[in-house]
Amino acid sequence: MKNMKNKILQKILGFIFCIKKSGEINRRCSTGQILTELIIAIAITVILAAIGAQLIGVSLYSAGSSEERQTATRLAEEVFEALRAISQGNDASSQGWNRFYLPPDGSGNESTSKGIANQYKIIVSASSTWEIANGSSTITLEGKDYNRYFIIENVSRDSSGAIESVYNSSNDDPHTQKATVYVFSPNGEQFAFSEYFSRYLNESTAQTNWSDGSGQCGPYGATSSVSGYCSQSNIDTSGGGNFKLQAQ
To answer: Average pLDDT, whole number, for the chain?
Structure first.
């Protein structure tokens, strides 16, 4: 492109030097030829300017898109960090893996509460803990609005223990879940980020009696002590730590 500009400049200068101080055209120069070359030179200059403007526009767009991707990456990581904290929690307010596996509050369905039709967001509860809630959220950064939500999907593994690319309910792995965060930039560009989460904390609640009676439906933390039950039918719980079936 630099050589082309030099040639155009030479033609324009050639036209100028073909004109005498008196304004008459030098006989060595052909008037028609010079005019034609000048028009071509101007046309090429316009074309090169247009190409240069397009290149600058593409460069600016690429820079803007890269910046938005970086922002989207940070917004997705915020969700993943919250989900890690939720999945590893064992208190009554977070209920750990239950809220992840049965979204959004631990009482959802292991199948119908998941997938692209179920959008979730992260909220901060009154007790300052992260929780999963229905819907999407809008985050404003530097005057720009980004829309964000995530979905949860079941995971299956093949006979070798590898995660299958397409979920197979026959090989369901209830100890692994897939979370995908979707972030939409102000210009409508979509970014998607996925991460797998595994349940590796094996804790259980020991229950020795049912003295608190029915109506104790929880949820309870995995390390808490429970002495009641939600409901019963034809079961005698009067024996303290024992119970027996009653005849109908």
So the answer is: 78
